[in-house]
Q: What sequence folds into this?
């Protein structure tokens, strides 16, 4: 689900621009961020950064 959201954000901002900022080809981003895509870790790190998003992992409240 998150990958699809990243794909929506990348298409809204411009896939060519996101591809340039992440160092990946536009075609590979379309493929990786599709419903049947299988993105690599560097894609899951680079796309949110290019979209101006911060990733964080926090512990659950006990």
A:
């Amino acid at each position: 689900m998150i990958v699809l959201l990243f794909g929506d954000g990348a298409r809204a901002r411009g896939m060519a621009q996101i591809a340039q900022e992440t160092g990946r080809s536009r075609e590979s981003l379309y493929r990786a961020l599709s419903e049947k895509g299988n993105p690599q870790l560097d894609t899951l790190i680079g796309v949110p950064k290019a979209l101006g998003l911060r990733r964080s992992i926090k512990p659950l409240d006990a």
Summary: The chain has one domain: 2-50.
